[in-house]
Design a protein that fits this description.
Layout (H helix, E strand, L loop, with lengths): L1 E2 L2 E2 L2 E3 L9 E4 L12 H6 L4 E4 L9 E4 L3 H12 L8 E6 L4 H14 L4 E4 L4 E3 L2 E3 L8 H13 L4 E5 L2 H5 L10 E4 L7 H4 L2 H13 L6 E5 L16 E5 L7 E8 L3 E7 L3 E2 L5 E2 L2 E7 L4 H16 L4 H9 L9 E5 L3 E5 L4 H12 L6 E6 L6 H18 L1 E7 L13 H12 L6 E3 L2 H11 L5 E5 L7 H23 L8
Parallel strand pairs: 3-4, 4-5, 5-6, 7-11, 7-12, 8-11, 12-13, 13-14, 21-25, 22-23, 22-25, 23-24
Antiparallel strand pairs: 1-2, 8-9, 9-10, 15-16, 16-19, 17-18, 20-21
Helix pairs in contact: 2-4, 3-8, 3-9, 8-9, 10-11, 11-12, 13-14
Length: about 500
């Protein structure tokens, strides 16, 4: 790539990555201002600086721009020769369900023999290769580098989680999407967006990015869904949901520790290859738990049909899908059952509790990690949901924890966040225990469990090590049981 007769060797917004011949784009972040690192970038050999500020430097070209984030996307796009135009790109956005839906689609396409990539919260996948990521939607330079890598490795389809942060901060600027999927919109990330209106507007960007004739898959049961389509008359829309008005719905739903339903295409559908599919019904079985996963599956199946995957192949891949870590994941099933879930906002807690309602258990126990460094509002709302569901589910015992032994500085629970949680539960006479650290909380809960009981490990980052802690406690207790059994009934050593 050449800019103003200067050959560009790389593009970055991170001064630490700058090498000779690189372009450095100065971004203003929430905590740091890239303009403070321009001198460092120049010292490392940056040949061009892009900034929104009035800055003059000797011996290096400085270009003032209106939007540095969009410029970063444009530069990365051009540097890697417009990779998204050489792929089929699926974007999935929503408050909840992004991770499960993207992994379902990835698994489905890969099972059908399509070379597939994934960019998401847990990782980046390129067929069978896996790479770790730090953000749900990485920065533009990281995304474009992975898209370019996928093109080189002959990937046909890439499915991406697209967060509201990523959309608002233009991390996906310039990417050409073929399909955009909406899962749901609930109150979340208000410490970043400040208002629900801004949150919805950020989500809407994904659908605004769709070129003429491309496809939006919309959850019609969501109250905010149609707002995503405002002034988007140039795109094709397919709706799903559990109501009668949706193009795609489900009937004969049966949920417990497995889920089954009938997938219903109520009106004809045209695939990306131009094949017309008539209305039909087909049985779906899955190990995924809960009503919310029926929505995720409906979205994924719809996407698969549009990409010309036969329904029998889709159903088989869903049946064999092992699930996603920390998404209603059964981590232990023996005399009692333990389920782990990355509950992180009121809607995700509601979804979990609705799922539990349809399950069979003797007594229910909960260990809940308070959400750290996200403010008192989100924790107040989560505590309210716990308060409301406590009598409905007849929770036997509940332990609230700050997970102080496992949270890093980004997720430390403040005194205010802890106090609001305790205040909401206490003033409503909800019986619970508070424990500062995670390990002691889980150990107490596991020691209460008896045959037929169920334990839920709930919470976002604070509970990320919950399953690991829980299993180590169970293994240790089983080892102690064996030792005690041997002491009671020692092996008889025959006399010689």
């Amino acid at each position: 790539m050449i800019i103003d007769n200067i050959e560009i060797k790389g593009v970055t917004c991170d001064s630490r990555k700058v090498k000779k011949g690189y372009v450095f784009v100065a971004l203003k972040g929430e905590e740091k201002d890239g303009n403070d690192f321009i001198d460092e970038a120049i010292d490392k050999g940056a040949s061009i600086i892009f900034t929104e500020s009035d800055i003059v430097k000797e011996n290096v070209l400085v270009k003032k721009v209106e939007n540095s984030r969009q410029i970063l996307g444009d530069l990365c796009n051009a540097f890697y020769d417009y990779p998204s135009e050489k792929l089929k790109v699926i974007g999935v956005t929503g408050t909840n369900g992004k991770t499960t839906t993207t992994h379902l689609i990835y698994h489905m396409l890969k099972s059908y023999g399509i070379s597939t990539g994934l960019i998401g919260t847990l990782n980046v996948k390129i067929n069978d290769k896996e790479y770790k990521t730090k953000l749900t939607t990485p920065d533009a330079e990281v995304i474009y580098a992975y898209l370019n890598k996928m093109v080189k490795e002959k990937v046909e389809v890439v499915v991406m989680e697209v967060s509201s942060h990523g959309l608002k901060n233009d991390r996906v600027w310039g990417i050409k999407y073929d399909i955009a999927i909406h899962t749901n919109i609930e109150r979340d990330h208000m410490n970043f967006h400040k208002t629900l209106e801004d949150y919805i507007a950020s989500k809407k960007k994904l659908f605004d990015y769709l070129p003429q004739g491309k496809i939006a898959i919309i959850n019609l049961d969501d109250d905010h869904s149609l707002r995503l389509l405002d002034n988007n008359n140039h795109i094709l829309v397919v709706t799903y949901g559990l109501g009668a008005k949706a193009t795609i719905t489900a009937s004969s739903i049966d949920t417990d520790f497995t889920t089954s339903f009938t997938f219903c295409l109520q009106r004809g559908l045209t695939t990306m290859a131009g094949v017309d599919i008539e209305a039909f019904e087909y049985p779906i079985k899955t190990s995924l738990l809960g009503k919310h996963n029926i929505y995720n599956i409906l979205a994924a199946v719809t996407c698969g049909l549009i990409l010309d995957v036969p329904i029998n192949q889709i159903a088989n891949s869903i049946k064999n899908f092992a699930g996603v870590p920390r998404r209603m994941e059964i981590i232990y099933k023996g005399a009692y059952t333990i389920i782990d879930d990355f509950s992180h906002n009121p809607a995700s807690y509601e979804a979990v509790f609705e799922s539990i309602q349809s399950m069979q258990y003797r007594n229910l126990y909960i260990v809940n990690a308070i959400r750290g460094s996200r403010g008192i509002d989100i924790n107040y709302e989560i505590a309210e949901v716990l308060k409301q569901w406590h009598p409905i589910l007849k929770i036997e015992d509940m332990i609230i924890t700050s997970s102080s032994d496992y949270t890093d500085f980004m997720d430390v629970v403040s005194k205010e966040e802890r106090d609001i949680f305790i205040k909401v539960l206490s003033r409503n006479n909800i019986f619970f225990k508070y424990q500062d650290n995670l390990k002691d909380s889980i150990k107490k809960a596991v020691n209460m469990l008896e045959k037929g009981d169920m334990l839920m490990l709930l919470g976002a980052q604070g509970m990320n090590h919950g399953a690991e802690v829980c299993m180590s406690i169970i293994k240790a207790s089983k080892y102690v049981e064996k030792i005690n059994e041997k002491r009671k009934f020692p092996d008889i050593i025959p006399r010689h």
